[in-house]
Amino acid sequence: MILKVDLDSEVPIYQQLRDQIVEAIAEGVLTEGSALPATRTLAADFGINFHTVNKAYDLLRQQGLIRLSRKTGAVVVPAVAGPPFPSEWTARARTLLAEAVARGLPADEVLQTCRSVLDSFVTTQRQKMP
Q: I need a labelling partner for 38 at 20 to 30 A (CA). Which of 2, 11, 44, 99 fits?
């Protein structure tokens, strides 16, 4: 898994890390049991504060995507959509879709983009199945 950080982005670094890890899980690059790099190692690789990586990992833990342990570090957990997830996801999707509409994107284009992105994750995971 290759992570990239844009230090000039308006998106906070911890959010960039979190988002890329989520995408790697969705693409099947990171699967159940996959270990993530140690926070200090990842921080040193990017030349950022290790608390920034801790924040990204803690978000992923809170969202049920990884388990943190002193013994094993950060590890991807099985995919389980817990009770609060559907409503949280819907709220985030609503905001993103509202932004697309507010910026004048036609509904057809928004739906086509959503389908294309979703299909790319599904296709990638199918290709990785034995």
A: 11
